[in-house]
Amino acid sequence: MIETLEEIGGRPLAPGQGFAFRCGPDLACFGSCCADKRLPLWPYDLLRLRRALARPSQDILAELVELETDPRSGWPALRLRLNADGRCPFSGPGGGCQVYAHRPLCCRIYPLARAVAPAIGGGQPRQVFIVQDAPACLGLGQPRALDQGQWLADQGMGPYLAANNRLLGLLMHPRRPARLALTPAQTHAYLAALYNLDVFRQQVRDPAFAKRAGLEKARVKKALRADESLLELGQDWLSQVLFG
Ligand code: SF4
Ligand code: SF4
């Protein structure tokens, strides 16, 4: 789920190093990359897709998401369920993306990928951006020089990276075992707090839950007002439930 440099095929970029890429409907490969792919979904991806689709989180999870377990870490890992023909359910007839403004991180960051390691002694995680190996992607052969930081900004990566950096605090918690073996109840709590925000909101609204979890009234109020705050609260609650 958290990928290391060795696990992502591609060419690592030095900080600030540029790369060449252009994507557009004039390329013969347009839309071909939205099929037959493993499309991981992070909690913030689900939050944004829910916003795009204006549907309850439990419906999206039931219809559009598949649950796996990361074989290395033991954490639950969610991915987008592809159509029977292998295409992404959001792929439009002309090859465009129907949720473009809210597309998941894995699509947004392409042709780059990010390998991360937790920060030593606090602060920001260490990260390396990689130009992915994708021989079928004609965009990688286009003579259009891009600045790494500008590309990430143009793709709206800021809130996605910030949310995932915060999530690292849970996924790489210092008290987690080498490989987790979550009980069904713990997996349910993971999915509720990080992905099923409509259900988790009802839970947080219950004064008995807030009391048991030791949540301050002001924090509950803030979480009930904004999905982003609710997700942060969910992550902190889960950290407490799983690791004390
Ligand atoms: S394969 Fe590459 S260039 Fe072609 S549509 Fe996908 S991202 Fe764009
Ligand atoms: S979410 Fe959009 S960009 Fe990503 S695979 Fe689906 S259609 Fe393509």
TrEMBL record:
Cited InterPro entries: Puta_zinc/iron-chelating_dom
Top-level lineage group: Bacteria
The protein's name in its UniProt record: YkgJ family cysteine cluster protein
The organism of origin for this protein: Desulfarculus baarsii (strain ATCC 33931 / DSM 2075 / LMG 7858 / VKM B-1802 / 2st14)
Pfam families: CxxCxxCC (PF03692)
PANTHER family linked to this entry: PUTATIVE-RELATED, YKGJ FAMILY CYSTEINE CLUSTER PROTEIN
